[in-house]
């Protein structure tokens, strides 16, 4: 069942994510993390199953032909790890609470890499205005996560299957990596963070040189960071894991890949290539 749930998690992420993008709804990660919590709350068997399911779903992200891979993989893995940890300690409700928090932790970590100390300097100057909003958002998401953890086991898997939708092959462009990284600079979270930091530093009455550095440093480092997220050779990960031998994890991974092959025909060639590479190395 682990392979089935992992494939279902990957496929519903594709369906929900593409639907939200089609309607230009920002902060899609908020909804995708709740979808993951719902599916993990639905699982039965060992208490560590959510960790395996999420890890396999994260690995399957490497098969995506376009877009960023590392940050969604990190989110899937960490949310699954936190859910599994909470599930072992105190059940799925604690697991859902812990997993829901990662949706706030990961963006802060990434923005800290991009903005550096300036982000925390700006936050320290506007704590009274920002903290209530952050606490409100955390509270809302935690309440939703707990509600989902309670009621998800009663939901039939057929309901999750309704979110699956086949995707046509993406058009290949020579500059998609660089254009994609440029588009990332215009996403709401980055633009809001950049605007917030600039406004705070402007009213701090800093020098013109410091203000210019405050503007151009995150733009440059952010662009390079987003490019890096897209060029890492993560597509080799599936073949590497399959070479490690026959284990329950690799069997579940192969089962999930088989299910995705049937649902997303345009991935057939890429998946067959991974299988061929694995087979040739083992012989």
Keywords:
283 residues, 14 helices
What does this structure look like?
The chain has one domain. The protein has 14 helices and no strands. It is mainly α. 77% of the residues lie in helices and 0% in strands. Helix 2 (28-42) runs antiparallel to helix 5 (92-115), helix 6 crosses helix 10 (188-203) and helix 10 (188-203) packs antiparallel against helix 11 (208-231). The chain has helices at residues 2-22, 28-42, 49-60, 70-90, 92-115, 117-125, 127-151, 157-161, 176-184, 188-203, 208-231, 237-242, 248-263, 268-282.
Instruction: Return the structural class.
Output: mainly alpha
Number of strands: 0
Radius of gyration: 20 Å
Low-confidence stretches: 266-283
Percent helix among the residues? over 70%
Euclidean distance between termini CA atoms: 29 Å
> Residue-averaged pLDDT, rounded?
83
Q: With helices defined by DSSP (H or I, 4 residues minimum), what is the helix count?
A: 14
* Largest beta-sheet details: none
Order of helices and strands: HHHHHHHHHHHHHH
Q: Which of globular, elongated, flat, extended, rod-shaped describes the shape?
A: globular
Strand content: under 5%
